[in-house]
Design brief:
By secondary structure, this protein is mainly β. It has a single domain, classed as 10 Kd Chaperonin, Protein Cpn10, Chain O (Roll), CATH 2.30.33.40. The strands form 3 sheets. The chain has a 6-stranded antiparallel β-sheet with strand order 8-9-3-6-7-10, with no helix packed on it. Strands 1-2 form a two-stranded antiparallel ribbon. A two-stranded antiparallel ribbon has the order 4-5. A hairpin with a 2-residue loop joins strand 8 and strand 9. The N terminus is likely disordered.
Length: about 110
């Protein structure tokens, strides 16, 4: 989805992101995960502040450094959750994003806020 494309809400009305807001979708459930060695880590395991990756679905018109399809790194505590047509999404502000991963980025680019 690009800046001009929209989602449809549960009632069929189109939804457009405003200002510097970003709509993202978490790929995997935030429950259990596996370590690089294959050890299963339960969802109840206590961890320090852990950032999460999500895929950008839509962006508002004032978002400058990411596009739909990019992967973004954010703090899961700084989010608003919303359900659209039975799927869970997260709404973030551009300033709440810590990093962007996308093939379109040049090697060595440090990003807008570093």
């Amino acid at each position: 989805m690009s800046n001009s494309e929209t989602l449809s809400a549960d009632d069929g009305l189109p939804v457009k992101m405003l200002n510097d807001r970003i709509l993202v979708h978490l790929g995997d459930a935030e429950g259990e995960r596996r370590s690089s060695g294959g050890i299963l880590i339960p969802a109840t395991a206590q961890m320090g502040k852990r950032l999460s990756w999500a895929e950008v679905v839509a962006v508002g018109p004032n978002v400058r450094s990411m596009e739909a399809g990019d992967q973004v790194l954010f703090n899961p505590e700084d989010r608003y959750e919303v359900e659209v047509r039975g799927k869970d999404y997260i709404i973030l502000r551009e300033r709440d994003i810590h990093a962007v991963a996308a093939e379109r980025l040049d090697e060595g680019s440090t990003g807008l806020y570093l």
